[in-house]
Amino acid sequence: MVLKNLKMTLKRSISGVEVTRLYPEKIMDLPDAERGVHVLEIRKCIGCGACVRICPNDCIKLVDYKRGNPVKNKKLQYPQIDYGRCMFCGLCVDDCPVSCLHMSKVFEIAGWDREDIIYGPEKIGVGDYTDQELSQLAEEARKAEEEKKRKAAEAAKAKKAKAAKAEAVEKGSGEKAAKKKAE
Description:
This is NADH-quinone oxidoreductase subunit I. This protein is of the alpha+beta class.
């Protein structure tokens, strides 16, 4: 038995077959289905909270983040993931209605404190808006809101005018009837 093991050891050392990986110097190729740290596409996220509701470990919560899209995500709330609780099941990724949450091949999560493994939108987010883009989006949102109010005011004015016209027609037909009776 000892000779058999010695023979196998010598065979492996001569043939050059890698038995032990030299991590972190040599990182192995990961499969396409690898579930690592999440990636959040900030420009796509609508802040619906579907990922929060589906998470079985309750490790995702929505937090405020000012670098997002104020047009699509009016509350400016984005997912924050606690990797100390996450089991990397991928349900949050599957349930996202706009497919803004993905899982990357990054698997190295370490820290000295518990807070170091809680990743907010600033750590997992990609595609943040610049200050200039944010000001343009805010201006567009303001203009859209003003246009919406203007249209609502016009619709209310038109409705009021239509009601007044209908009342005048009704009043006029009542006067005609009274005139006919008087004759």
